[in-house]
Amino acid sequence: MVQFRGAYCTFDTNAIWGAMAEGKHRLFAWLLVQRKILTASGGLVTEPTQRVEIEEWWNASMLGLPKELKRPKTSIMIHTIWNVWKERNRRVFQGVATSPMRVLALIKDDLNYTSLALRREEFSLFS
Question: What's the rounded Cα separation, in Å, for the pair 85 and 79?
């Protein structure tokens, strides 16, 4: 039997493209969920554990959420993976490690800046 795993996506692409995030963040999330992000060594980004695919994690995180919570949750997830990726790049390319608390602060800052730019209140809990 031929398997077409990874040949098509099973996640809701509208959730990513409709998220309250910059275009580069949405594009990054879309590529990451499809496992299309390349590393400096030319390899693809792999999950920390072989038991959970990124796409499965994404779908499980969105499962059963009411419509009014999907957009803010998607935005939080996108900003989180973006900042974790940026931290990974700082460590690999600059040899600098930021503390987990600082990365969390950067995620909150990004969410607050996005909220201000879009004049939305969804992220006021991060103030």
Answer: 10
Name which of 78, 77, 80, 99 is nearest 90 in CA terms.
99
Which tokens go with 69? Answer: 């919570």
Read off the pLDDT of residues 41-84 as tens digits, 9 standing for 90 and up: 555 555 555 566 777 878 888 888 888 888 888 888 899 989 99
CB atoms within 10 A of CB 93: 9
Phi, psi angles (nearest 5°) of residue 65: -75, 140
Give the other-Cβ count within 10 Å of 75's Cβ.
27
Q: pTM value? A: 0.72
SS3 assignment for 41-99? CCCECCCCCCCCCHHHHHHHHHCCCCHHHHHHHHHHHHHHHHHHHHHHHHHHHHCCCCC
